[in-house]
Amino acid sequence: MTPETGDLPRVPPVLRAAAWALVAVAVLLPVVLLGVHQRVLAGALDVRYFASYEYDAQGNETRTVSPDVDFWDRWSVLSGAAPADRALLAAAAACVVLAGLHLTTGVRWPLPRACRWAGAGAAALSALSAAAVVVVDLVAVQLPEGEGAYFPSSSSFLDVAPVLAAMATALVFSAVAGVVLLGPALPPAAAAEQDPGPAAEPLAEPAAEPLSEPDVEPAAEPPAAEPLPGSAAGSPARTPAGSGEVPPFPRPSAEDYAHYRRPQP
Fold first, then answer.
1. Which end of the chain has the lower number of beta carbons within 10 A, N or C?
2. Which portions of the sequence form the region Disordered (predicted)?
3. Contact 246/238 with Cβ under 8 angstroms?
4. Overall pTM > 0.70
């Protein structure tokens, strides 16, 4: 990520084009191979490989396909008509190169996510196709002589051993490439070396001790207020204003009470 904007850096056009070209190769080869297999197994080459030729009196050629052609006969044709080992090995190689680009350049120039997911899908398609070929060939080896999918030889396993080895290689490399493309740009070990780990929390500073108050002599209490004129000697003094205390209600003395009770002239 760029420190100025925080966005991912742009992939160079050459690297982007190379990555998408590898994706196209990895996707097209298995798709074309599966299409060819489907056509051959449906009987597209029966006339070429399993037809009998007859000529009439005028010399016209007539081709008749044997009705006994089955799946295994057509599968034997695929070994020469559609070399699955080369196609899937090439697709696996393209996925491996794409995974290498992801690991080596992903830190500086991360590949587009769509490119990586398409490459992972192509790797999965290659792996599944290789696994299917391996299963069918292993079943063909177990068939009795004369019913197999290959011409008789000294050993039926020798007929499929090269194909099995190629398919196993394509299966392993495609699976590894797919996992790498879905993972981080760096291997786990390299990422662990570069990652310093969570930052240590700063130590809490000790709380400062409260400053001791200087020794101050208590202020002398103000003298009691003198009683106002006209109040009794024993009446409490009024509280000065601003002290915040509510003064008690003054009670008149008996003489004052008698004075105020006298009728006024």
1. C
2. 190-265
3. no
4. no
